[in-house]
Amino acid sequence: MNVTAQMPSPVTTGTLAGRVALVTGSTRGIGLGIARALAGAGADIVLNGFGDATEIETTREQIAAACGVEVTYSPADMTAPDSIAEMIETTTARFGRLDILVNNAGIQHVAPLEQFPPQKWDQILAINLSSAFHTTRLALPAMRRNGFGRIINVASAHGLVGSPFKAAYIAAKHGILGLTKVTALETAEAGITCNAICPGYVSTPLVEAQIDGQAKAHGISRDQVIRDVLLAQQPNKRFATVDEIGSVAVFLSSTAAASITGIALPVDGGWTAH
User: Fold this and answer.
1) Domains of the chain (ranges plus CATH)?
2) pLDDT tens sequence across 3-29
3) Angle at CA 122, nearest 5°, toward 109 and 85?
4) Residues noted as catalytic
């Protein structure tokens, strides 16, 4: 089973032409897939995240050239409210607007509760939950001024169900769903929507590394790791692709989704249907 095969790139439709989108944690993985999809639909993009500066610049240039949109980059630290504020201020100053905010930045740590490092708990909640509070509160004034806004929080199937050894991650993802509902209710009459996407396992380099590590540790094949370990709870037994998640984000960002707000949308191959 090949989990790294890519689906065709999203077709440029222009449905988001003239919009400005900020995607946190978008230098790789799901965030990058969402950024590319939004750019393909015509939105100007602000990338954010850590990584090699040369690689990030290459990615920025490639998206801009391929999609014919403006793409900028912010190195804002998602654990630092002042850095987040500077990113939002820079975005609105440069573009004069901020229409789409995708809160995707996140990290993970796995350990039993009694062995879970407190500093890891604090860091995960800061990046996976508190950063979304800070970006949202700072982006809303610009959205209210323009009478349009789309806030998309990338949660997880783990925002809907529990799992052992992931206390901080699951607490944060459950919190994101609560923040999503409150934001949706407070902005319902302002032309702004707020929704959460809840992916199951998605084919990313991080997941690919997990497959290799599990196969080596347990002395089993890659296919066994995929079906019996990682996708044990995912009935369709396949990874979603970053392009699929990106396409969902494009739809939720469009005018067609104007009446969809406050939802937690599973994209999990049936995981949470159990």
Assistant:
1) 20-200+240-266 (3.40.50.720), 203-239 (no CATH)
2) 444 433 443 458 999 999 999 999 999
3) 115
4) 169
Helix segments in the chain, DSSP class H: 29-40, 53-67, 81-95, 118-125, 131-146, 167-186, 205-218, 222-224, 242-253
pTM of the predicted model as reported, rounded to 2 decimal places: 0.93
DSSP 39-59: HHTT-EEEEE--S-HHHHHHH
CA distance 239 to 4: 9
- Contact predicate 243/29, CB 8 Å: no
List pLDDT tens digits, range 151-184: 999 999 999 999 999 999 999 999 999 999 999 9
Rounded Cα distance between 213 and 23, Å, is 29
- Three-state secondary structure call for residue 107: coil
Q: Which helix (H) or strand (E) holds 150?
A: strand 149-154
- The answer to whether the beta carbons of residues 197 and 248 sit under 8 Å apart is yes
CA distance 234 to 201: 8
DSSP helix/strand/coil, 148: coil
Secondary-structure breakdown of the chain: helix, strand, coil percentages, each rounded to the nearest 5? 50, 15, 35
Which helix H or strand E contains 78, and what residues bound it? Answer: none
Give residue-wise pLDDT tens across range 220-262: 999 999 999 899 999 999 999 999 999 999 999 999 999 999 9
Burial class of residue 48 in the structure, from the number of CB atoms within 10 Å of its CB (0-12 exposed, 13-18 middle, 19+ buried): buried
